[in-house]
Amino acid sequence: MDSLMTKDAAIALGVSQRQVTDLLHAGKLTGEQLGDGTWLVSPRSIAERRSFNAGAGRTWSAASSWALLAELSGKSTTALSQSTIARIRRRIRTSSAEEIARKVATRTKVHRYTADSFERTASELVLTGKSAAHRIDSDLTRQTQAVEGYVPEGDLEEFVRRHLLFADENGDVAIYERSGELNVDGAYAAHAVIAADLARSTATRERAAGIAALEKTRQQWLATHTR
User: CB under 8 Å to 131, separation ≥6 — which residues?
Assistant: First the structure.
């Protein structure tokens, strides 16, 4: 599908053209800026934005979102203040899995690439989303012709150079920016992180599986945490 002008992207997202431009500058939409300053917006990024639109109300900071997913995954949050822990736990109690999925989606930016070797690239990433879907839903199989993950350590640009990745908004390699503590389980991200990233998918079945896994994890957390 051809790229869209900002006015068409604004209509698709139900926001103003100025908001679309702000999202482009913030990296929350992807597109190409032409020499005259005009933006062409990626239809894929619009579809992804619509699938996890944060909706009304205040957004959650990246730090709070990462901490909430760590809490759901049973990881320690002792480094946080008691007031922050209390706020995170209150959000888990009062927010639906759908709302959690929408809010935490804005904690990270996704970069897309093409790769010479999916297998080699995947072997050096902490896998999440589609690449780890089988970890949270036995009915979903791991994607072999697509890779989604986090760079475990070091610089993203260095990783891209070393793996000969080429920027491509329609590429099948999706690397998520890590702006918080990335808890891992072997080669995979923590359970709640996988679920949250899968919930970003524009594929209905995958998104539903991600939200269902978040809700299951939330219910397990509620069963072990009293007020």
Answer: 122, 125, 142, 143, 146, 147, 148, 149
| Count of Cβ atoms closer than 10 Å to residue 121 Cβ | 21
Alpha helices, H only, the chain: 6-13, 17-25, 43-51, 62-72, 82-94, 97-105, 118-123, 156-162, 191-198, 204-224
Residue 35: which domain range? 4-51
47 and 144 share a domain? no
Enter the tokens of residue 222: 């509620």
pTM above threshold 0.85: no
Residues 43 and 70 in one domain: no
Please provide residue 6's backbone torsions phi and psi, each rounded to the nearest 5 degrees.
-60, -35
Using one digit for the tens of pLDDT, what is the confidence trace for 19-55?
888 888 877 788 888 888 888 888 878 877 776 665 5
